[in-house]
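Q: Focus on the shape:
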Amino acid sequence: MQKKTKVVFSFDTEDFVNDFAAESILRCARILREEGAKGCFQVVGLLAEALKKWGRQDVIDELKNHHEIGFHSYTHSVHPNLVELTDVCDPRAASAAFDEREREGIRIVKEIFGRESLASAVPPGASFTYIAQYGYHRLGIPVYAASPVKDKVSSRPISFCNMTQLRYNFCLDDTLFSMDEEGMKKVLDEKAAGQEVFVIYHHPNIDCTSEFWDAINFNGRNTDPDKYVPSPKRPPEETELFFERFRKLVRMIREDDRFEFGTFGDYAGYFDGKRTVTEELLKKLIPQLDQALFPVTEPESLCLSDIFYSFADVFKGLPLRECGEVSGFICEPYAITESVKLKAEDVINSARLIRENDFLPEIVWVGDRALGPADWLRAAVKTLKSEKDFTLDPGPWQIDLGQFPTLRDLKLGELWYDCECSNFRDRYLSDRLRLQSWTIRLPAGTKRMIF
């Protein structure tokens, strides 16, 4: 029997400008509940505060009592937004600024919605930043949705920067104003074929407004709260048509044996299993490592950071390594450009110089020779094969990012969607997201490559 595709409904719940838009949140939530589904409402901290201010305890109670609560940042498009805040050279300074702001937003959302923890986080717009990935993990959030690090073929969960990453698959914002029942069936037929997770996402405010709240008030500037400009309202018949079709879509999914409802919380511990690496296991990984510098999926799910430090521990004489949190690079690592001759004894001895810090080392010294971390990993493989003296040829330091084209091609400076970030130059963020590729893990026992 074919495994069912899990359907997750995710709502970017964010409009703290238009008080009338809160009604759309309530209606989306009630339709899901009435049809037997649970939604994942990614709440902006400022909206949580606004719901209290507007007296919308009915909205708060509906989400609190019947749905999953995630986090959509504290301030969303208010400048400096997350990319503006964290696009700085010093990652520790960026992390401190991120923690100070987002910790407060998380506290507010937890308090207002009565949660001990939040299941997931979703970036506002295209504010993908490695600082947020590591930061949300540190603040106790396990899942990152709408990720640029994704399996574009089967939508498998991916571990990146210590968070389980899930892609946003299908947007309802404009679709249900124009898509009839036949169109819905066609989409479901496409997504049922080979998709592990199908995330349907939506901005509830667009049900009743024809223009995004932040495009009007935060495009390259901050509008003062007492001068917020409301969004134009949609004609009531358009809003009613949306909710009629939304209910129909939810019901179609519920009645289709190929699908089952799920939430992001179902994936909170997806990659949490023990990763114990021994010398014997490393020997089993050699064929995969010889094939490609890429994460492995057999017999364990391991990223390159796991493997790098596991070789170092084995060469230090430790019986095993219990893998835990991982990190990538902060600067592009060194890589040899011509062949070098090495001794296995020197490679083993060099492991004592490898220290675990905030990020992976960019250079490793083997005797008097400088190697890049990928070079050292290839040398470690040869050493474990019992090669005594060998020649090490140049090779790539980066994994095959062709398997992750969205990450490979990411240019955040071109992306914010609704709002211009006038102070954002993308001096570091796009490149540093790619530099975290050594933290990528794919589910154990699944295909190693995507394409």
Observations:
- The chain has two domains: 5-267, 276-401.
